[in-house]
Amino acid sequence: MLDKERGLYVAHSANGPISLQGKMACRHGLIAGATGTGKTVTLQVLAETFSQAGVPCFMADMKGDLSGISQAGKLSGFIEKRLPEFGISDPQFQNCPVRFFDVYGEQGHPMRSTISRMGPEMLGRLMDLNETQTGVLNIVFRIADDNGLLLIDLKDLRAMLNFVGQNAAEYTTQYGNVTSASVGAIQRALLALENQGADLFFGEPDFDIYDLLQCEAGRGIMNVLAADKLMLQPKLYSTFLLWLLSELYATLPEVGEMDLPKLVFFFDEAHMLFEGTSKALTDKIEQVIRLIRSKGVGIYFITQSPTDIPSNILGQLGNRVQHALRAYTPQDQKAVKVAADTFRPNPAFKTYDTLLELGTGEALVSFLDEKGTPAIVERAKILFPLSQIGAITEDQRADLIKRSRLYGRYDHAIDRESAYELITAATLEAERQKAEIEAAAEAERQAAIQAKADAKAAKEAEKAAKEAAKKKSNGIGAKVLKSVLTAVTGVAAAAAADAVTGKITGKKTTSKTSTGEKVVKKATRSATNTLTKELTRSILGNLIK
Fold first, then answer.
1. What does the pLDDT read at residue 531?
2. Residues 58, 225 contacting (CB under 8 angstroms)
3. pLDDT confidence of residue 286
4. What is the DSSP string of 229-274?
5. Where are the alpha helices (DSSP H) in 506-514?
6. CA-based diameter of the chain, in Å?
7. How high is the pLDDT of residue 209?
8. Letter string b/e over residues 458-470, b meaning 16 or more CB atoms within 10 A of that residue's CB
9. Fold adopted by 2-112+207-416
10. Is 60 left (phi over 0), alpha (psi -120 to 50) or beta?
């Protein structure tokens, strides 16, 4: 609690009150201890103390217990017995101003980020990609930037992956090799991410970091993230909080040393942040933690054992509250020894033995003094919170959400034109043009086929006409020939009859013309007459037709 004389009063030892120095609060801290030893209550006491001093906080609520910070506490028999120990006679129970957030948008205001803001490195960690696949993801981001394609949600990233995969040959020379195997692996990882509900996290409106730095009536707002569902997806949970840290580091200006932090960030289940994290990313986390204090942000990790935190990061955590540890195995005993060795020894007791003896609500406490030096470790009892211990009801939560100033700002997703829409439109246009070209080519082919068929039909018609004309000509000639033969035969027969008659009668013909000549003349006249008649009939027949 905030006390005029004792400042940020957090715990009480045999030597008196233990307070956190406001100027040293940005030097980060650690709350550690076995399950059930009181870590959550310690977090709540620290958070509400900061709130009373006008410092907003962000915390992940794993079990729903931290939601009670929104309601005023009550005097219980347990608290009443401890009042004299803390030198408190009349505790003023009070709530803290609270805003609830939820990545899934179910128990608080949605918190979203765009794919572009998350970046390829964070996404690579989230999707558990190897180095090669992360490199391909970097290429995809670069191509999107160079072409002005916004990556807002998962469908944008999927469309971009398809686009790059289909046109890999065009980009390999400029950006590097993009294999179908790597693109396929990233697509499968995206599908798994969607199945975890991550598609609700990516989109717009994206979260404004400055909404975490708000106060109401001089008290810092407690920004509580509902993480009971989110923690079931450890990669998503840890990557989301790491993204928040990175955004704070990239967005906030340098402020140097301050009397109090601008924001305190509580990272519960901190071991999730470092499990399966590459050395490069661990180095980045260390850099952020080391430098973000100059931005006025204090980070406090909550975990079971100090060994859950990499040593180079553990060394950055100056303010420590260590609850009891259990040593059931040799590995546990080693962890207790490591935890004991991180404190500045107190000659009044053995740190190792005390860690095993601490009861619920007790802790070994060592805060930085005004000069930034770790204080000698003290065995102390953590103060009770002035707000409610335990979860609130669903109706209370819903009422607080509706009364929040952020209500309606993030609740409805926006799907504006981005990479997916532009790539889809370009694909449809390309397909339309391709269809038009194919249709024109098909029409030209059909026209050529028809022209060929027409030419063939015309040729066949011409041939048929010639054959018909030939047959007709042959018919007339036959009739003429027949007429000639008939005429010749008739004339010849008549001449023969005349000759026979002359011989019988003994008369001689008086004509000088020979019998043969007469035959030819008569035959010619007869054939000419027949030909004339046939031609006349033919001409008249054609005219009538």
1. 57
2. yes
3. 87
4. TGGGSHHHHHHHHHHHHHHHHHHSPP--S-SS-SEEEEEESTHHHH
5. none
6. 190
7. 94
8. eeeeeeeeeeeee
9. Rossmann fold (3.40.50)
10. beta
- Chunked mean pLDDT (size 10), the chain, 545 residues: 86 93 94 92 95 96 92 90 86 94 93 93 88 94 94 94 92 90 93 87 93 95 94 85 90 91 92 78 85 94 91 92 92 91 93 93 94 94 94 95 94 91 91 91 92 90 84 61 58 56 52 54 63 58 50
pLDDT score at 474:
63
The pTM score is: 0.78
Q: At what angle do helices 419-505 and 515-544 cross, to 10 degrees?
A: 150
Name residues whose C-beta falls within 8 Å of residue 57's C-beta, 6 or more positions apart in sequence: 47, 50, 51, 220, 222, 223, 263, 264, 265, 266
Q: Which two tokens stand for residue 406?
A: 């952020």
Q: What are phi and psi of 54, to 5 degrees?
A: 85, 20
Please list, in sequence order, all residues whose beta carbon lies within 8 angstroms of the beta carbon of residue 252, skipping any fewer than 6 positions away: 209, 262, 292, 295, 296, 297
Instruction: For tokens 């030198």, name the residue.
Output: 87
Query: Token pair of 137, please?
Result: 């993801």
Q: Which two tokens stand for residue 524?
A: 């010619």
Q: What φ, ψ does residue 238 adopt, rounded to 5°?
A: -65, -40
For the chain, what's the residue count?
545
